[in-house]
Amino acid sequence: MSYYQSNEVRTIAELMRWDMAKAANAPFIKIGRLILAVDQTGNEAWEQIINKLKQDHGARKFKLYSGRHGAIEGCFQDNGEVYGGAADPAFYQEDLREANRFEPLANVDIQVVDTGRLSKLLYKQRVLTDIASGHWVIVSWCNSIASMHTRPINADAAADYLEGGVLYVDAFEMTRKRICDVVIEDYAWVPRD
Q1: Is 74 left (phi over 0), alpha (psi -120 to 50) or beta?
Q2: Which 3 state secondary structure label does DSSP give 62?
Q3: Of 151, 83, 165, which Cα lies nearest the Cα of 119?
Q4: Of 50, 90, 117, 142, which shows the fewest CB atoms inside 10 Å?
Q5: What is the pLDDT along the chain (193 residues), one digit of tens a residue?
Q6: Where are the domains of the chain?
Q7: Three-class secondary structure of residue 73 per DSSP
Q8: What contacts 16, CB < 8 A, 6 or more positions away?
Q9: Contacts with 137 (C-beta within 8 Å, 6 or more apart), sequence order
Q10: Rounded distance between C-alpha atoms, residue 87 and residue 102, angstroms
Q11: Closest Cα partner for 82 from 103, 101, 68, 93?
């Protein structure tokens, strides 16, 4: 498992298809010291990314953001709050257990952070603070590349999800964007190496 650079010109959909044909885990994108998943992901993926960052950059300090689901339609509502179905404390507990097992084997420092209820503003502030303190930030939930994308407030209910096909269209449009364009549009605030 590896990661792609923030100047990747293929679309999200192209990376989903290409990488999933090669591996069981989602491709990741590296933006400075921020690592984001392009598709569905799991524990094995962030463990492999940690090993790769350790090998490529000598990385030893990590913050693993956990505790929520992600979706290609985005993670935040119009008002900046996390959409209703996103938070999942069980994911945080699972990642915490796995990090405690993996940390001594990899000889790294992993701090698992429950970001399940952080607003868009607090999420951005947390990322900036953690990067400034010398950590690599791995956003471990599915489709975290789309985290900064905003969903309509009424997107919580399953009926609203299908109503008018609004979110389906948003998801389709998001997957057609080139990675480098998503990085420019949604992650210009992230410091680069």
Answers
A1: left
A2: strand
A3: 83
A4: 90
A5: 678 899 999 998 888 875 555 555 568 999 999 999 988 887 778 998 999 999 999 999 999 999 988 877 777 777 778 877 788 899 999 999 999 999 999 999 999 999 988 988 999 999 999 999 999 999 988 889 988 877 665 544 444 444 444 454 467 788 889 999 999 999 999 999 7
A6: 3-186
A7: coil
A8: 26, 27, 38, 39, 175
A9: 33, 34, 35, 62, 63, 65, 127, 130, 131
A10: 24
A11: 68
Residues in the chain: 193
Q: Which two tokens stand for residue 39?
A: 């598709």
Contacts of 142 (CB under 8 A, 6+ apart): 26, 37, 39, 40, 41, 69, 70, 71
How many C-beta atoms surround the C-beta of residue 166 within 10 A?
Answer: 16
β-strand pairing of 28-31 with 34-37: antiparallel
Q: Distances in Å between the alpha carbon of 7 and those of 30, 86, 92, 178? A: 9, 28, 30, 9
Provide the 10 A C-beta neighbour count for residue 191.
Answer: 12
